[in-house]
Amino acid sequence: MPVILQGLLTILIGVGGCIGYFFLSNMVLDKVIFPARGENAGRNINRANAVRPWLFLFPALFLLSLYLVYPVIGSFLRSLYGRNPDEFVGLGNYISLFGSDDFQQAFFNNILWAIFVPAASTFMGLLVAQLTDKLSWGNFAKSMIFMPMAISFVGASLIWKFVYANDADIGLINAVRAAMGFGDPVDVVQIPFWNNFFLMVILIWIQTGFAMVILSAALRGIPEETIEAAILDGANPWQLFFKIKVPQIMPTIIVVWTTITITVLKVFDIVYTMTGGNFGTEILPSYMMDFMFRDDGRATAIALVIMIVVFPVMYSNIRQARKEMR
Amino acid sequence: MDNIAGQKSSLTWATHISVFILVMLWLIPTVGLLVSSFRDRDQISASGWWEAPFAVELTARGRAATEATPDGDLYVVTGNIFDDEEAQSYFPKGSDDVVAFGTSGRNPTEHPAGQTADLGDGQSLVVNADGSYEFRTPEKPGSRGQRIYFAAESPPKFTLANYNQVLNSDGMGRAFLNTFTVTIPSTIIPILIAAFAAYALAWMDFPGRGLLIALVVGLLVVPLQLALVPMLGLHNRIGIGQSFMGIWMAHTAFGMPLAVYLLRNYMAGLPRDIIESAKVDGATDFELFLKIILPLSLPALAAFSIFQFLWTWNDLLVAKVFLPSDDASKVMTVKIADDLLGSRGGDWGILATAAFVSIAVPLVVFFSMQRFLVRGLLAGSVK
Fold first, then answer.
1. Rounded to a whole number, what is the distance in Å from the CA of A270 to chain B's nearest CA?
2. Residue of A nearest to B207 (CA)
3. Domain residues of chain B, as ranges?
4. Is the pLDDT at A35 greater than 70, yes or no?
5. CA torsion B279→B285→B286→B288, rounded to 10°?
6. Is B358's CB within 8 Å of A74's CB?
7. What's the Cα-to-Cα distance from B131 to each of B117, B118, B203, rounded to whole Å?
């Protein structure tokens, strides 16, 4: 298998190259450029220490700027050109996008996804975290609900095809309908508007585990005294949960919510596998893939729209991180 | 909580039951896939996977024998339908109970088993539950025997045939190897690069450090979609094109923000005393990193490796764009999404098996490394 050999070779070159780079550059810095001896020893050590962080950072920064910073600019510039990369169209791509029905549909659906999936996943995650908190077999239950995190979006879509299939002998939903005596099987991914929600269920199924793990840890981090005090004051379990516990873990709930929102805005696999964007289920990432390889101008314009939607979350994350560092 | 003991027992029961229901809801779809992947192909389309342990009624066809014995002015053909080659392909064991039979493909279960059916022109046919039949006809039968359709109970059948077909003849074996080839270098190479950068951001003082950390946090959420067109263009210009080399570099770079962020958070939390005293003892930054920081950061390194492994193994988008679309370099997700779902949309056994093959390895990794995964998530993943 030549490709596998190529892979092994790449690991060797990649890892060996990294070790070699860090070791050699460090040595060159200390022994050749700023040697810690002679009359300038002290000054040289200081200079070497000022340069060293950049040696350590260089490979990571190089990759980050090449693959993530440059594309922001590159995509923006490309989106100003038409299908032919020499034909400058200005904002033409954006204007025709916003005027097209498909784009409006995809945008609207994406908003639906971005509202519904994080809300439902966080709610379910919180529910499971609270219910399993004091349960003897809670860890097992959590592990089962966490499991879909390991499954690819493509795999998950296939799994759910066995629930949604338009055949009472394959699809669970239609089997239940048949058992309850409703007539012919229905294809749930073709019901206009509601099919979006059937697709969202797949992502909720995956993301609930993530929300549960983080919220479960947050619930355990709540100081015991506050709970004991509430019980002594006669709070019932509902009040205890909604008035004492939830307010204390609110910051974590927000982090979980925004993290899932970001994921939702990027996932194209589920729509691509389940409906291919047909039946009114298109979302922006899958809509972009329709233009990928065909019209780079359109594709980059859609990517930038996704970026703009993500931007507020990015801003608040950076602010949060800076606050924590102080 | 003793003062609310009265409510406690009923609430506890409600909790047990609702958690049980939730776990069931979460598990059932996956169990269905697993069960379906082991079922016989004819049985999958005849009954739901939840009925897999029970017998299935299958409809099949065969032909009566051609040797006839004269009986008065009629010819009689007798035999057992399960001896027929065509019928045996549906019921290899032949021990099934015939429920009904017929002579036309449009209505294969016209007559209940054991009842004599009048076929007109003086012909009659009866098929008994054990498969034995008797066909009476006024004319001597020709070289082709009478067509017999029948429905019979087939015992539940579990087989590895789907796996055999998926791995050997549908190209999933190749795709499995390709997925491995993409995943392993993409998981290993970013670790060291990110670890050095994370150390610099956590424990070295230099101007612009805060700005760089903010940059990494910001890049965590940049949609990959932005990188597709410009980077594919760059790969084409520098001669990498769509290739494994290209996807390794892309995955390494796309994993970098999470790697640097996770590792920096973890390293920044290591006790200051250890690092200060090592510095006092004359350790250089390089030695400090290799001998103290790296070994202490193993849990974070493990957590990141698991994330990166799951992400690259499960990825569809990057593979579709940065790998060539020929059969030789398709990974499993692309193979399933583009080939199997398109051309074999109705072949549920093959679909279930292909899906299970593709999720088996991540599931093993998940269940064996769950501890690290949870720890990594709690260290503040934003991906």
1. 10
2. A50
3. 2-52, 56-154, 164-378
4. yes
5. 40
6. no
7. 15, 18, 82
Low-confidence ranges of chain B (pLDDT < 50): 1-6, 381-383
Q: Does B35 touch chain A (CB under 8 A)?
A: no
Which amino acid, A137? W
| Residue A282 tokens, joined | 């298109």
Evaluate whether the domain defined by B164-378 bears CATH number 3.20.20.60: no
CA A258 to chain centroid: 10
Distance in Å, alpha carbon of A23 to nearest chain B alpha carbon = 8
Rg (CA), chain B: 33
CB B217 within 8 A of CB A315: no
* Predicted local confidence at residue A200, as pLDDT: 93
Q: What is the ipTM of this complex?
A: 0.89
Greatest mean pLDDT among A112-121, A264-273, A307-316 lies in A112-121
B306 touches chain A (CB under 8 A): no
Taking the CA atoms of B49, B51, B56 and B57 in sequence, report the sign of the dihedral they define.
negative
Name residue A190's amino acid: Q
CB B257 within 8 A of CB B381: no
CA distance B170 to chain A (A): 17
CB contact under 8 A, A131 and B189: no
> Which of B26, B223, B234 is opposite residue A306, by nearest beta carbon?
B223
